[in-house]
């Protein structure tokens, strides 16, 4: 660690589940938060002063209530070391509690930053293990750290993750409504068990989802996004969501679904139709009296990085 040096970390937004890949699949998007940190020897980590601009800037907490600080603290403990506090500046572009991985981004950036400050005792796989353990599921954590399209499985506290690259001519159109939906609430509406026919349906759907991305076959995407494990239960929590998805498809998207646990809806579309898809999605929310905005995003291929 170098006193007065500014450490800078950039972390991408992520979309989890991708329809049928509940708690397993995720993808990294070209929308980033940036964390700048200047350590000050002698300052306890929990006394770090934090300023922020952008999304949620007025709601930033400090001390262990802040996910970045909490993740730094946890990572230092894991390494058996201590790290000082200092001054932190956040540039937040990932909307909070909208299904675009803001909590994974915060945890991943805290773990990554602490690792840098300690001289990198952990490799990327270990950074992913610490992040996923804190988050509870690895489907946002894996793409936040590895970039690209990821599959990740958490078993006995250990994450197995793999990434594949995705065609660059596809765009992600994320339409973000003006209300928050917390993951706990969106998980609380899900059943504890499912009939075998639902399990079989999703195994089939996720197989075609993989084919759609790996072999660049957009004709399989709608089938691949067709989930029966979480999407039907969550649609009721997002006014207008069914119309937004239908509008996206009618405007030329290959397919659309809830991003993570919502309320954002994500569509995958060719670049030349992306704006039209975004406008149609905003109109779908408007019909349900919900204001929203859309972003046309590229996919991120790098995951979290020092800049
Ligand atoms: N897989 C998680 C869920 C992602 O759908 O609940 C949200 O963090």
Description:
The chain is α+β, with helices and mostly antiparallel strands. It folds into 2 domains: about 160 residues, Ribosomal Protein S5, domain 2 (2-Layer Sandwich); about 130 residues, Alpha-Beta Plaits (2-Layer Sandwich), CATH 3.30.70. Strands 1, 2, 3, 4, 5, 6 and 11 form a 7-stranded mixed β-sheet that branches. A hairpin with an 8-residue loop joins β1 and β2. α1 crosses α2, α2 crosses α3 and α9 runs antiparallel to α10. The longest helix is centred in the last third of the chain and has 19 residues. The two termini are about 15 Å apart. It binds L-homoserine. L-homoserine binds next to α5.
Provide a quick synopsis of the model.
GO terms for molecular function: ATP binding; homoserine kinase activity. The protein has 2 domains: 165 residues, Ribosomal Protein S5, domain 2 (2-Layer Sandwich); 128 residues, GHMP kinase, C-terminal domain (Alpha-Beta Plaits).
What is the topology?
Elements: E1 7-16, E2 25-39, E3 49-54, H1 67-79, E4 86-92, H2 102-117, H3 124-135, H4 141-146, E5 149-155, E6 158-164, E7 170-177, H5 183-188, H6 196-214, H7 221-224, H8 231-234, H9 241-250, E8 255-258, E9 265-270, H10 274-287, E10 292-297, E11 305-306
Parallel strand pairs: 3-4
Antiparallel strand pairs: 1-2, 1-11, 2-4, 2-5, 5-6, 7-9, 7-10, 8-9
The protein binds L-homoserine (HSE).
């Amino acid at each position: 660690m170098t006193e007065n040096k500014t450490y800078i970390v950039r972390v991408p937004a992520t979309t989890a589940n991708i329809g049928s890949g509940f708690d397993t699949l995720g993808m990294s998007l070209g929308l980033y938060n940036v964390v700048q940190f200047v350590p000050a020897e002698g300052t306890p980590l929990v006394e770090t002063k934090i300023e922020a601009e952008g999304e949620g800037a007025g709601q930033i907490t400090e001390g262990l209530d802040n996910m970045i600080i909490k993740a730094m603290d946890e990572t230092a403990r894991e390494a058996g070391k201590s790290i000082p506090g200092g001054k932190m500046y956040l540039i937040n572009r990932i909307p909070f509690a909208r299904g675009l991985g803001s909590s994974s981004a915060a945890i991943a950036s805290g773990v990554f930053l602490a690792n840098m400050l300690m001289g990198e005792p952990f490799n990327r796989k270990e950074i992913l293990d610490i992040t996923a353990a804190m988050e509870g599921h690895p489907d946002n954590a894996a793409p936040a750290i590895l970039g690209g399209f990821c599959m990740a499985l958490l078993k006995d506290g250990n994450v197995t993750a793999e990434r594949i690259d995705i065609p660059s001519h596809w765009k992600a159109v994320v339409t973000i409504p003006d209300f928050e939906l917390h993951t706990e609430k969106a998980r609380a509406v899900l059943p504890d068990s499912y009939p075998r026919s639902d399990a079989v349906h999703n195994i089939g759907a996720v197989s075609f989802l993989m084919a759609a991305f790996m072999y660049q076959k957009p004709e399989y995407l709608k089938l691949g996004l067709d989930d029966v494990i979480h999407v039907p239960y969550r649609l009721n929590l997002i006014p207008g969501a069914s119309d937004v998805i239908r509008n996206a498809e009618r405007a030329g998207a290959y397919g659309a679904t809830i991003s993570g646990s919502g309320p954002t809806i994500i569509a995958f579309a060719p670049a030349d139709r992306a704006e039209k898809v975004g406008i149609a999605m905003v109109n779908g929310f408007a019909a349900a009296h919900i204001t929203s905005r859309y972003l046309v995003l590229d996919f991120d291929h790098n995951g979290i990085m020092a800049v």
